[in-house]
Amino acid sequence: MKNQEQCCPTCSASLTGRWEYITKGNVTSLRKMLESVKRNDRNSIHLQDDLDLTKTEYANFQKLRYNGLVAHAQEKGCWLITSRGAQFLRNEIDLPKGVLIFRNRIQKYHRDRVTVQDIWDSNDPYWLQKEDFEYEAIDIIDFEIDRFEAITFDENGQGRINF
User: Is the Cα torsion angle 33, 37, 39, 42 positive or negative in sign?
Assistant: First the structure.
Protein backbone atom coordinates (compact mmCIF):
# COMPACT_ATOMS: atom_id res chain seq x y z
CA MET A 1 0.00 0.00 0.00
CA LYS A 2 0.97 3.64 -0.20
CA ASN A 3 3.91 4.66 1.96
CA GLN A 4 3.89 7.98 3.73
CA GLU A 5 4.29 10.41 0.86
CA GLN A 6 7.69 12.08 0.59
CA CYS A 7 8.00 15.54 -0.90
CA CYS A 8 10.75 17.58 -2.51
CA PRO A 9 12.15 20.03 0.04
CA THR A 10 12.36 22.75 -2.64
CA CYS A 11 8.96 22.61 -4.34
CA SER A 12 6.92 20.15 -2.21
CA ALA A 13 6.25 17.95 -5.25
CA SER A 14 5.60 14.30 -4.52
CA LEU A 15 8.64 12.05 -4.77
CA THR A 16 6.59 8.86 -4.75
CA GLY A 17 6.59 6.61 -7.80
CA ARG A 18 4.05 3.89 -8.54
CA TRP A 19 4.56 0.31 -9.62
CA GLU A 20 2.77 -0.55 -12.87
CA TYR A 21 2.23 -4.27 -13.38
CA ILE A 22 1.26 -6.14 -16.53
CA THR A 23 -2.36 -7.22 -16.12
CA LYS A 24 -4.76 -9.47 -17.98
CA GLY A 25 -6.43 -6.32 -19.28
CA ASN A 26 -3.13 -5.12 -20.77
CA VAL A 27 -2.62 -8.49 -22.45
CA THR A 28 -6.17 -8.38 -23.86
CA SER A 29 -5.46 -4.96 -25.38
CA LEU A 30 -2.20 -6.24 -26.86
CA ARG A 31 -4.01 -9.24 -28.37
CA LYS A 32 -6.63 -6.92 -29.90
CA MET A 33 -3.80 -4.88 -31.38
CA LEU A 34 -2.18 -7.94 -32.94
CA GLU A 35 -5.53 -9.08 -34.39
CA SER A 36 -6.04 -5.62 -35.90
CA VAL A 37 -2.57 -5.67 -37.45
CA LYS A 38 -3.36 -9.00 -39.11
CA ARG A 39 -6.87 -7.91 -40.17
CA ASN A 40 -5.69 -4.58 -41.66
CA ASP A 41 -2.42 -6.00 -43.05
CA ARG A 42 -0.46 -3.05 -41.63
CA ASN A 43 1.39 -2.36 -38.41
CA SER A 44 0.11 1.16 -37.84
CA ILE A 45 -3.18 1.03 -36.00
CA HIS A 46 -5.28 4.03 -34.95
CA LEU A 47 -6.60 3.20 -31.48
CA GLN A 48 -9.96 4.90 -31.89
CA ASP A 49 -10.65 4.09 -35.55
CA ASP A 50 -9.16 0.61 -35.97
CA LEU A 51 -9.51 -1.00 -32.54
CA ASP A 52 -12.61 -1.83 -30.57
CA LEU A 53 -11.23 -0.89 -27.15
CA THR A 54 -13.27 -0.26 -24.05
CA LYS A 55 -12.69 3.05 -22.25
CA THR A 56 -10.53 1.27 -19.69
CA GLU A 57 -8.48 -0.52 -22.38
CA TYR A 58 -7.99 2.77 -24.24
CA ALA A 59 -6.93 4.62 -21.07
CA ASN A 60 -4.41 1.92 -20.13
CA PHE A 61 -3.10 1.08 -23.61
CA GLN A 62 -0.05 3.35 -23.39
CA LYS A 63 1.23 1.34 -20.39
CA LEU A 64 2.22 -1.39 -22.84
CA ARG A 65 5.10 0.84 -23.94
CA TYR A 66 6.78 0.53 -20.52
CA ASN A 67 8.01 -2.94 -21.53
CA GLY A 68 8.53 -2.10 -25.20
CA LEU A 69 5.46 -4.07 -26.36
CA VAL A 70 4.02 -1.20 -28.43
CA ALA A 71 5.37 2.08 -29.79
CA HIS A 72 4.01 5.23 -31.40
CA ALA A 73 3.75 5.01 -35.18
CA GLN A 74 4.47 7.99 -37.43
CA GLU A 75 0.81 8.77 -38.10
CA LYS A 76 -0.97 10.80 -35.42
CA GLY A 77 -2.94 8.61 -33.00
CA CYS A 78 -1.43 5.40 -34.39
CA TRP A 79 0.52 2.73 -32.57
CA LEU A 80 2.44 -0.32 -33.73
CA ILE A 81 3.13 -3.62 -32.06
CA THR A 82 6.83 -4.33 -31.65
CA SER A 83 8.54 -7.63 -32.33
CA ARG A 84 8.99 -7.85 -28.55
CA GLY A 85 5.21 -7.49 -28.13
CA ALA A 86 4.57 -10.31 -30.62
CA GLN A 87 7.19 -12.51 -28.94
CA PHE A 88 5.58 -11.90 -25.56
CA LEU A 89 2.15 -12.91 -26.89
CA ARG A 90 3.65 -16.10 -28.35
CA ASN A 91 5.11 -16.84 -24.88
CA GLU A 92 8.65 -16.74 -26.30
CA ILE A 93 10.01 -14.14 -23.86
CA ASP A 94 9.41 -13.09 -20.30
CA LEU A 95 9.24 -9.54 -18.96
CA PRO A 96 9.73 -7.82 -15.63
CA LYS A 97 6.56 -8.26 -13.59
CA GLY A 98 6.32 -4.48 -13.26
CA VAL A 99 8.09 -1.17 -13.58
CA LEU A 100 8.43 1.69 -11.11
CA ILE A 101 7.19 4.87 -12.81
CA PHE A 102 8.00 8.38 -11.62
CA ARG A 103 6.97 11.39 -13.69
CA ASN A 104 6.36 9.20 -16.73
CA ARG A 105 9.86 7.68 -16.63
CA ILE A 106 10.90 4.18 -15.69
CA GLN A 107 13.00 4.23 -12.53
CA LYS A 108 13.33 0.52 -11.79
CA TYR A 109 12.31 -2.90 -13.13
CA HIS A 110 10.77 -5.54 -10.87
CA ARG A 111 13.18 -8.41 -10.22
CA ASP A 112 10.47 -11.06 -10.79
CA ARG A 113 9.75 -12.01 -14.38
CA VAL A 114 6.50 -13.18 -15.99
CA THR A 115 5.35 -14.73 -19.23
CA VAL A 116 2.00 -14.17 -20.89
CA GLN A 117 0.94 -17.60 -19.61
CA ASP A 118 1.84 -16.61 -16.04
CA ILE A 119 -0.46 -13.61 -16.33
CA TRP A 120 -3.38 -15.63 -17.70
CA ASP A 121 -2.94 -18.32 -15.03
CA SER A 122 -2.71 -15.86 -12.13
CA ASN A 123 -5.53 -14.86 -9.82
CA ASP A 124 -4.54 -11.20 -10.16
CA PRO A 125 -7.30 -8.71 -11.00
CA TYR A 126 -8.15 -8.09 -14.65
CA TRP A 127 -7.47 -4.37 -14.14
CA LEU A 128 -5.76 -2.84 -11.14
CA GLN A 129 -7.89 -0.60 -8.95
CA LYS A 130 -6.61 2.40 -7.00
CA GLU A 131 -6.06 0.32 -3.86
CA ASP A 132 -4.01 -2.28 -5.81
CA PHE A 133 -1.19 0.12 -6.67
CA GLU A 134 2.04 -0.05 -4.72
CA TYR A 135 4.07 3.09 -4.16
CA GLU A 136 7.74 3.62 -3.46
CA ALA A 137 9.71 6.71 -2.52
CA ILE A 138 12.17 7.84 -5.17
CA ASP A 139 15.69 8.56 -3.97
CA ILE A 140 15.68 12.32 -3.39
CA ILE A 141 19.43 12.64 -3.98
CA ASP A 142 19.19 11.08 -7.46
CA PHE A 143 16.22 13.28 -8.30
CA GLU A 144 17.96 16.50 -7.18
CA ILE A 145 21.16 15.68 -9.08
CA ASP A 146 19.17 14.96 -12.25
CA ARG A 147 17.11 18.11 -11.77
CA PHE A 148 20.05 20.45 -11.21
CA GLU A 149 22.21 19.10 -14.04
CA ALA A 150 19.48 20.01 -16.48
CA ILE A 151 18.78 23.50 -15.09
CA THR A 152 21.15 26.42 -14.62
CA PHE A 153 20.29 29.74 -13.00
CA ASP A 154 21.50 33.21 -13.95
CA GLU A 155 22.30 36.05 -11.53
CA ASN A 156 18.61 37.07 -11.45
CA GLY A 157 17.51 33.59 -10.41
CA GLN A 158 15.99 32.77 -13.79
CA GLY A 159 16.26 29.09 -14.67
CA ARG A 160 17.38 27.76 -18.02
CA ILE A 161 16.84 24.17 -19.16
CA ASN A 162 19.93 22.68 -20.78
CA PHE A 163 19.31 20.05 -23.41
Answer: positive
Summarize pLDDT for 100-112 with one digit per residue, the tens: 888 888 888 889 9
Q: Which helix (H) or strand (E) holds 40?
A: helix 24-40
46/85 Cα distance (integer angstroms): 17
Beta bridge partners of 136: 17
3-class DSSP string for 49-105: HHCCCCHHHHHHHHHHHHHCCEEECCCCCEEEECHHHHHHHCCCCCEECEEEEECCE
* AA letter at 158: Q
What sign does the dihedral 102-80-24-121 (CA atoms) show?
negative
Rounded Cα distance, 82 and 72, in Å = 10
Give the chain's radius of gyration (CA, Å).
19
pTM attached to this predicted model: 0.70
